[in-house]
User: Which sequence fits this backbone?
């Protein structure tokens, strides 16, 4: 045993998030979004960027998670309060207020 805690699994994160009242939790590899980058470059060239400089000003930065967080291996998305019914959850589990984990991740 090295004394370094094991990284949480995607399922660990999902359980903690759902227990905390999030509508869903997903995990994906932190890989560049190549097709999105191509779309941004094409739209910028066509003038259909709507003045969104943060996204369109540097498509390489906007579509590569490692540019924002070097060494990132995963992206986690966790929507809350989407307003619609979530098919995999019972309505009684929906909570309001701050999100707090009931148990720490391993």
Assistant:
């Amino acid at each position: 045993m090295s004394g370094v805690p094991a990284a949480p699994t995607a399922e660990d994160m999902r359980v903690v998030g759902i227990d905390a009242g999030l509508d869903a939790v997903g995990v994906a590899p932190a890989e560049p979004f190549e097709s999105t980058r191509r779309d941004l470059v094409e739209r910028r060239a066509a003038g259909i960027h709507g003045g969104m400089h943060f996204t369109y000003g540097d498509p390489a930065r906007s579509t590569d998670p490692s540019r924002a967080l070097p060494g990132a291996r995963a992206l986690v998305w966790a929507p809350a309060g989407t307003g619609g019914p979530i098919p995999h959850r019972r309505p009684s589990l929906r909570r309001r207020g701050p999100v707090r984990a009931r148990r720490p991740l391993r």
